[in-house]
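User: For a benchmark we're assembling, each entry needs the component sequences followed by a predicted structure for the full assembly. Here are entry 17's components. Please fill in the structure.
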Amino acid sequence: MIQVNNISKSFTGRSILKDINFTFETGKTNIIIGESGSGKTTLLKCMVGLNEIDSGEILYDGRSFFDLDFKGKKAIRKEIGMLFQGWCLVRLKTVEENVVFPLSMFTDMSAEEKRDRANFCLQRVNLNNANNLYPSELSGGMKKRVAIARAIAVQPKYLFCDEPNSGLDPKTSIVIDSLIKEITEEYNITTIVITHDMNSVIEIGDNIMFIYKGEKWWEGTKHEILKTNNQEICDFVYATEFMKDLKEKFQ
Amino acid sequence: MRVFYHFGKYYLFIKRAFGKPEKFSIYIDRIFEEINILGIGSLGIVAIISVFMGAVITIQSAFNFESPLIPLYAVGVAVRDSMILEFSPAIVSLILAGKVGSSIASEIGTMRVTEQIDALEIMGINSAGYLVFPKIIASLLFNPILVVFSMFLGILGGYLFGIMAGVVTDYEYIYGITYEFRPYNVIYALIKSAVFAFIIASVPAFHGYYTSGGALEVGRSSTKGVVYSSVLILAFDLILTQLLLS
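Assistant: Structure for entry 17:
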């Protein structure tokens, strides 16, 4: 479980996050939604320690991240898997080498054990016969799968996904979403997903936080978000004509 | 004041790069990879430049030593001392600052703007250590070898072109390059090359590491890395010459 308490963050005097509070539950897919520039990615970067916070605290199962020393932070980071928007695969390494990389850095596994673990993770994300391919030879969906395989290779307790569906077709998006949901439940991980994609919110969202202009505007479940009358959320959720029609039919 | 700010930032960066490695065996592999990329990959350019530079120094020296008061073996002395004292350690380092420095800054800068460095940090890896430490060590280990290689080829190039152009005889050139040879000059050159190697690897890496923005900024970081490392090489060339030879 990750608790975010009264987080504020500003850049050169401009306030980006204002007093954010939220609890990201274990074994559930916690989704952060909001318009572009609302502060979602900044919040995520603060949570993983890539950005310092101005005030507040972030608790990883009770451990206050920013109060820890370098060693303590490093220990928490080893429990984090992250799926970046741009995949962040090492271009000069093959698929298998990319997945093996964190295992080589942090475990004492033998080469064979590492290969077995990499194969298991790649099979888990339904990526077979791609071990010797380079990232440049993969499609967007395959790269996302490799990134997920790499993230789960070290059996993380916390999984952060920054717009996992960006640049993917709707069919592949559903596959990636399902994979994130399955992995979260299977390994009892605390998963945090940032997305603009309402399909993802409806498909996999257990807990949802809506950020508007750097503030937590709303929180609830996927069932509640469809029923809310909050104007800012409705403007976001029902931004397209298709969704507006759907809402009318639903009502 | 910004100079002090950047110097402090550079110091902290180097301190992080020399932090305790997560796994030493991985770093050893990375050092060999970097020796292959930065060192072995530079052999060709160093060889070509050294041979031609040795040849040019031979012909120019012979042209300027036309006076009967100056013995012809002075051509060999001039080539040897020019190559050992200045050309091989300093000019080769300046060329490497351009070739290797731009490659280091753009590689690390691209990793920064594509969030690959963030990915390493989130995995709990000391990104500065993992990316920069092996480059510095590889450069420190291999640059002196490149410098000795350059000295040898420069003197050999001078010999071959001098004989072919007929500006110096076989005997006079070999007598010249052995005349009053001071082994300390080679040690001086190796000390300089080690200092320059540190600058060549660390300064462009620093600029690449703190790149922010996109592809355009990567190019700017690469240019800055090359310019600053070249200026620092020239400054340290002067300082070390004063300290070691005066």
